[in-house]
Amino acid sequence: xxxxxxNVLPRIWWCPTGPLAFLPIHAAGIYNAGTSGFQISDYxxxxxxxxxxxxxxxxxxxxxxxxxLLSVIQxxxxxxxxxxxxxxxxxxxxxxxxxxxxxILKGCQGIKSRVIRGMEESNWVHLACHGLQKQDxxxxxGLILEDGxxxxxxxxxxxxxxxxxxxxxxxxTTTGEEKLSDEAVxxxxxxxxxxxxxxxxxxxxxxxxxxxxxxDEFYRHIMADKGRPDSRKAAExxxxxxxxxxxxxxxxxxxxxxxVHLGV
Length: 264
Prior knowledge:
Blueprint: E1 11-14, E2 45-48, H1 52-59, E3 69-73, H2 86-96, E4 102-106, H3 112-121, E5 124-128, E6 130-132, E7 142-145, E8 148-151, H4 152-157, E9 165-169, H5 187-193, E10 198-202, H6 211-222, H7 234-249, H8 253-256, E11 259-263
Parallel strand pairs: 1-2, 3-4, 3-5, 5-9, 9-10
Antiparallel strand pairs: 6-7, 7-8, 10-11
């Protein structure tokens, strides 16, 4: 039996199928009780996995001894609205990763070829840009970069030997296709197939002004140790980041629900 001890929480991996794949199971609970102990987050840290085999495969991979973070910051791109707070998001990341290798591709630097090369050379990647889920052609879903889309179809084919952790600060990165609800046909699923052990992603559109705060709290938590950051603590970092924000300024339910962790 789980007990609501905020300092010692177990992990739960959700592997939903069918219509459940579109529900924020990690946020289930009663929110008008006025006290703790009525929400899943009071009892456990939640992660998702598209399949049990994917979870087992990622669990058995060893971590590379080196560390490099790639940040792709795309405030604007042709054909889409501007995301002004990506610049603030970058400042938050830079403040938290001081002293560690950090490559930044910002604005016009974020072309597909440079982003792919950066992903090949980095263990971690933070992508702050627009995401697009194409319901009619789900494999054409992708991340909107300076010179086009990095599609799900392309992501799956990448060879990323160093891939470890990805933070997808973009909209709709785990939004699947209703007709393929039992298959992880979304950007986050593609990142797992490309070799990432775990990632932070979004179930639907996110609030632009909240993204920098989530990133700031996440990297503050996971970079707290002076040694090499451990991607296996990403789910914990996301969980406590959201809890901290909820207490600090009472972030609305619909604002923090989209953020989820996948993998190990």
